[in-house]
Design brief:
This protein is an alpha/beta fold. The protein has 14 helices and 15 strands.
Length: 424
């Protein structure tokens, strides 16, 4: 099929899209009485229409049953968190007992580093990406300081080469091998929040294991976005939020993956809480922590049911749509956006749009980051006035994330047409 930068072609692609009806399952912010074009699912996903009913069910059970809702609610709260592994395991690519829903992202990252960052005087360094999301930077820095080390010495940041925007995989693996004698942990994002680069998690993990180092990942911009195979890639641990591509509400409950080889290790240091205690004897209220031999063993407190209800509402939509179909549409959407942006560039006297997200579809997810060489803020403000919700990052980057559950090819075309009209 020959790709065209036309409205008719975009509408043709939408007609052929077997997931087009899922758009109707979400609420859209309004602009001048119409649905806006929403391209910031990489920051906060739209609200699924079924969320209100899911949350209301728990509110009804709470009002009608009080504490007995832990046992007699439609979805008994005592076991509420147990509904999620079967849904999330398909999204992040792991076994069901390797995943648990709990807490928020940075809380989980700290809890995981308690277990997996075990520095010694010789092996204490952490390798991460330059310009990781600030929460990751702060978490890593504070953990290093907590153990008595200087972040300037203990943290190794891998950065793009001069004149490049993304990090080459070989530079990451070379840094791991070069620092193997002092390295305690490799901790990367799955997808970089700024450039949209999807890192080669499998290769990074394999290289870390080659030198007997733990590999963990923050999947905030990856979960629900890119294809993940955490168990098969033998990733040691990972964590993610649920409010971006997983559409589970602002500050929604987060998720954790721990490879089964670690989850079964009762001797692994951790911060313990009642809900991570073995279920068979939890209510005996005895001293001495005995962890569940799954990812659940890292839980601290009982389930935040209202937040989890919103999460369940969204994950049920993922299940209905099918993860494989979502990945296929995501690749088509971003490829179409790439084509349109390159077509606009070709019509300019000089290159104005610099796409800093990798061209290779296997090295990116939904997000395309556009570095504007001119008129950046002018273009962004015009998009906003036209009802297109995108994201501006200083000094001159527009982040756009066409999400397969609720964005269309016509959305992508309209985005490009506005940019083209401004530059013309």
């Amino acid at each position: 099929m020959n790709v065209e930068n036309t409205l008719a072609f975009a509408q043709q692609l939408d007609e052929q899209d077997e997931l087009r009806s899922f758009r109707e399952k979400f609420y859209f912010p309004q602009h001048e009485g119409r649905d806006c074009i929403y391209f910031t699912g990489n920051s906060l996903g739209l609200q699924p229409r079924n969320v209100q009913a899911y949350v209301q069910q728990e509110l009804n059970d709470w009002s009608n049953m009080g504490v007995e809702g832990h046992f007699t609610a439609k979805h008994p709260w005592l076991h509420y968190h147990e509904m999620f592994p079967s849904l999330l395991s398909k999204i992040v690519g792991c076994k069901e007992h390797e995943v648990v829903v709990m807490n928020s992202l940075t809380v989980n990252l700290h809890l995981l580093m308690v277990s997996f960052y075990r520095p010694t005087q010789k092996k204490y360094k952490i390798i991460c990406e330059e310009k990781a999301f600030p929460s990751d930077q702060y978490a890593i820095e504070s953990q290093v300081r907590y153990h008595g080390f200087d972040p300037k010495d203990a943290i190794i940041e891998v950065k793009p080469r001069p004149g490049e925007h993304t990090i080459r995989t070989e530079d990451i693996t070379d840094a791991i091998l070069l620092n193997k004698d002092e390295l305690a942990l490799v901790l990367f994002g799955g997808v970089n929040y700024y450039t949209g680069q999807f890192f080669d998690i499998q290769k990074i993990t394999a290289t870390a294991h080659e030198v007997d180092v733990i590999a963990g990942f923050d999947l905030a911009h990856a979960a629900g976005n890119v294809e993940l195979k955490l168990h098969d890639w033998e990733v040691d641990f990972a964590c993610w939020c649920s409010y971006k591509y997983l559409n589970s509400g602002p500050g929604g409950v987060a998720g954790v993956y721990i490879h089964e080889k670690h989850a079964k290790n009762k001797g692994l240091p951790r911060f313990a809480g009642w809900w991570g205690y073995t279920k068979e004897s939890r209510f005996k209220m005895e001293k001495g922590f005995v962890p569940i031999e799954t990812a659940e063993g890292w839980q601290l407190s009982n389930a935040p049911v209202l937040s989890m209800a919103a999460h369940k509402a969204s994950l049920d939509i993922f299940k209905e749509a099918g993860v494989e179909k979502l990945h296929a549409k995501r690749k088509r959407l971003t490829a179409f956006l790439h084509f349109i942006l390159n077509d606009i560039n070709a019509k300019q006297q000089k290159k104005i749009i610099n796409i800093i997200t990798p061209d290779n579809e296997n090295e990116r997810g939904c997000q395309i980051s556009i570095l504007m060489e001119a008129k950046g803020k002018e273009v962004f403000n015009a998009l906003t006035k036209k009802g297109i919700v995108a994201d501006w990052r200083e000094p001159n980057v527009i982040r756009v994330a066409p999400v397969p559950l609720y964005n269309t090819f016509e959305d992508v075309w309209k985005f490009g047409s506005i940019i083209q009209s401004i530059l013309a």
